Amino acid sequence: MGDAFTIGRLARDTGTKVPTIRFYEEIGLLGTPIRTASGHRRYGSGDVRRLAFIRSARKLGFSTEEIRSLLGLTEHPEQSCGAASDIARRHLGEVERHIEQLIKLRDELRAISTVCPGSNVSDCGVIAAIAHSPA
Amino acid sequence: MGDAFTIGRLARDTGTKVPTIRFYEEIGLLGTPIRTASGHRRYGSGDVRRLAFIRSARKLGFSTEEIRSLLGLTEHPEQSCGAASDIARRHLGEVERHIEQLIKLRDELRAISTVCPGSNVSDCGVIAAIAHSPA
DNA sequence: CCTACAATCTCCAGTCACTATAGATTCAAG
DNA sequence: CTTGAATCTATAGTGACTGGAGATTGTAGG
């Protein structure tokens, strides 16, 4: 365990921007790290794993609150599973609804942008189509 | 044209919240309306159409900046068409990319939430799956 | 005319998840 | 020892609203 990371190293290793790490500390997703005598943050490999988890979950679309729950669950491993998969399934439902809406939207936009495919006709239907879209 | 709307009526007619209307005025999507002697905003049917257009475009996912462009184009109808359909097609491309990403995400979430379908097993793969997702 | 109460007014703070800037210090390499 | 990169704190900005406080005004019933 001779592992000691600066904030910049932690940022590089996890694909996170430095201010984002400080932000996560501020909102309590990351704990307050130890500091060097001059005040610089020092991290260990546990922090790398935790931050990597946070970033993965964010990319999967979990909110910081959901991530807080997931991280909390890892501290009570005996009952984690049901609650964790609840969070994941609820989130899956939201993503599926979101996809449905976007597909409707895409079909509308396709219709709108074929009304006038870039010609120089002086009155076309794009604006009208947006105005009268049932969205 | 004996049409005169209060802000509340305009809100009801367009499915917009009152503060949102004032916000649109503040950022210049809606012009500054005439006021009654006591300072209350008065709107006409032109404002209803303009606000309805803004709301439709927002529901279609256009940003307020894009809407500003679209509204600007309506004031130069001779060259509107090409530029308007450019905006729509660019936006369509973004929506299509967004859908692709969400489908990948959905497949991952499905995999994750079937790892442990809510049983009471004490160590399951949900947390690990999130941590090791390639997202 | 008076009393309620609903609607409107302005101004400001909060949301979410960061991102960026300024100005001061500190670290690491040559 | 100097230079430049990295870090520090603190604060403000983003986008697109939403909500609340506290004051004024509009309107309907008695």
Automatic annotation (TrEMBL), chains A, B:
It comes from the Bacteria. One of its GO terms (molecular function) is DNA-binding transcription factor activity. It holds the Pfam family MerR. PROSITE patterns: HTH_MERR_2. Residues 4-73 form the HTH merR-type domain. Keywords: DNA-binding, Repressor, Transcription, Transcription regulation. This is DNA-binding transcriptional MerR regulator. It comes from Hephaestia caeni.
